[in-house]
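Q: Please design a sequence for this.
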């Protein structure tokens, strides 16, 4: 008995005629899962480009006609990536700039304030 294929992807043409939509329309069949409309091997996950956005629609409840999860993937767009500021520009203790501050110790530290 070899390994069994449990998942199948169906890449088909988009049902939308609008030129702004993607031509790709991805459905995922998972063995043993069904939808209200399809018995067994139901297409329970759908990825589509619609209305200028990528969407993932999931039918996680076999007794529900509408998708249980509709995910707008817009926040995953590369241009939304936050560039982490790896070099802090200010000290956390007093917000003094890193390149100038703490020459005479932290102004927020009372021990250092007394020495000046
Ligand atoms: Zn400080």
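A: Design:
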């Amino acid at each position: 008995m070899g390994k069994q294929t449990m998942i199948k992807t169906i890449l088909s043409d988009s049902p939308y005629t609008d030129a702004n939509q993607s031509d790709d329309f991805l459905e995922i069949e998972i063995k043993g899962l069904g939808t209200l409309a399809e018995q067994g091997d139901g297409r329970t996950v759908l990825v589509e480009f619609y209305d200028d956005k990528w969407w993932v629609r999931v039918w996680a409840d076999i007794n529900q006609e509408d998708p249980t999860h509709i995910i707008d993937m817009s926040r995953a767009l590369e241009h939304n990536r936050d560039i982490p500021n790896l070099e802090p520009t200010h000290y956390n203790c007093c917000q003094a700039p890193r390149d100038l501050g703490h020459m005479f110790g932290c102004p927020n530290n009372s021990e250092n304030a007394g020495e000046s």
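Q: Thanks. Anything notable?
A: The longest strand covers residues 43-50. Residues 7-79 form one domain.
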